[in-house]
Design brief:
Blueprint lengths: L17 E7 L8 H12 L4 E7 L11 H12 L18 H6 L18 E4 L6 E4 L8 H11 L2
Parallel strand pairs: 1-2
Antiparallel strand pairs: 1-3, 3-4
Length: 155
């Protein structure tokens, strides 16, 4: 996977961590969720938890900036210190292979398939085998999401 800074990272390097994979956007009504994502990342990082942000411009073209613009916005506006990756597609013919796997997971209502909007969240266990899906309106502070993180960290 390509990071915003152009470096490469294999997600296999993250095996052993609990991950929250989120498609993010800088010009969305849900963009303030960055605050909660930063707080989650900081609260649980020392226990092996990491938020991974994947900018996506597929929803209302709400992530139009360059990699440098995205990185600057995220760090200066929200203090984002978790890994951000290069823009990718989460739906359609150009869907990135990571999201081909993630979108096969059902949400709490038993619905799989396309990502609905920016800030959809996928919680991935340390071994990568268990994935829970949280739709965009589920905030980072939501009790079910936090409980899921804590449960996966305790295993």
């Amino acid at each position: 996977m390509e990071r915003l800074d152009g470096s490469r990272e294999s997600l296999n390097e993250r095996r052993g961590d609990v991950l929250l994979v989120v498609n993010v956007a800088s010009r969305c009504g849900l963009t303030p969720q960055y605050e909660g994502l930063v707080a989650l990342h900081n609260k649980y990082a020392d226990q092996g938890f990491t938020v991974l942000g994947f900018p996506c411009n597929q929803f209302g073209e709400q992530e139009p900036g360059s990699a440098e613009e995205i990185a600057t916005f995220c760090s200066t506006t929200y203090g984002v210190d978790f890994p951000l990756f290069a823009k990718l597609e989460v739906n359609g013919e150009g869907r990135h292979p990571l999201y081909q796997t993630l979108t096969s997971v059902e949400d709490a209502e038993g619905v799989a398939g396309d990502v609905q909007w920016n800030f959809e969240k996928f919680l991935v266990s340390r071994d990568g085998a268990t994935v829970r899906r949280f739709r965009p309106m589920v905030t980072p502070e939501d009790a079910l999401l936090v409980a899921g993180i804590e449960e996966m960290l305790s295993v």
